[in-house]
């Protein structure tokens, strides 16, 4: 009996120890670096693509800072490397683990207090399964909404597109959104879900929403990277890539937003599987990016705008991303972006910058929006980098979902009315 009991406990112990242990970010910092010369900017770019240092944002010009996540053990080494390159830095977030605990507490508190009648509280963060349940419920209960499984992730999760249409047979022009292609950018799925909820509840009563739905079909992929998103809940809050196994490497994941063909493998992407910007074996090597490609291609000629939602930085960005050269449609793009950004800022005063990715943010090759613009002919193809500018970074507290989504939706409405 005693023998069996100890076998039981041994199994229980093994089961516990092999289940996911969540990455503990206690003591991890985010530091902000201020480059002052072109050489320092080049050094940071080189450092990003050749190391596994987690860059949260990167400078393209001397006006823009670079944010890095640093673990407590390597802080002294990183500080020395920066000093050797005459780079100044300050600590932006002192303890990411504490920030994550606060976020989880707020999520749990909101869950406990929620007494609405929807499948989920659209003012809170939710797991992949909860979001899928919400979309299924919406499709069952709201005649405007249909969902389709557009593809499957590496680990076999559904990649779902939700369509809001008052007349599917009319083949209207489309406003299309991919959200949460980067796993840790939770505010992006939350914003897309809040907008879906706002459109579906406002149709028929809000004149502006009614007009926009009568004019366009609205399509959303609320979680474009399901495996990475699920992993960011269970194992690693700050996971960015998908969950592909990279042959010959212990590091997993491809940066899906470097896995598109325009400029594939170029500046601002890495060929190292351990890099956060690893571009993968080839353009569209990953099922998740391939699914987005197919969705846009299936609606060819109808996509009026395709917007990729990211965080953080408060930017509205156009092509090109893979080069600092400007597209021939840039004047039209600038006018449209300006309409969006002005309406965002008019809401709560949130400051946004706008312009081409390659000039305003940094050069990044193989990104979704360049593909939508260059290969699919979607002129109004943009990346929106939502709140904030680094105070919380990727761990924007749930209480900021509604303000973020509200201003973003105001921006999108004004932009749609301007194009
Ligand atoms: Zn992103």
From TrEMBL:
Residue ranges occupied by any Peptidase M14 domain in the UniProt entry: 124-419
GO MF annotations in UniProt: metallocarboxypeptidase activity; zinc ion binding
InterPro entries noted in UniProt: M14A-like_propep (IPR036990), M14A_act_pep (IPR003146), Peptidase_M14 (IPR000834)
Signal peptide span: 1-20
Cofactor: Zn(2+)
Keywords per UniProt: Carboxypeptidase, Disulfide bond, Hydrolase, Metal-binding, Metalloprotease, Protease, Signal, Zinc
Gene Ontology biological process terms in this record: proteolysis
Catalytic residues, chain numbering: 385
Pfam family, one: Peptidase_M14
Cellular component per GO, a single term: extracellular space
Family as reported in the entry's similarity comment: Belongs to the peptidase M14 family.
Name the record gives this protein: Zinc carboxypeptidase A 1
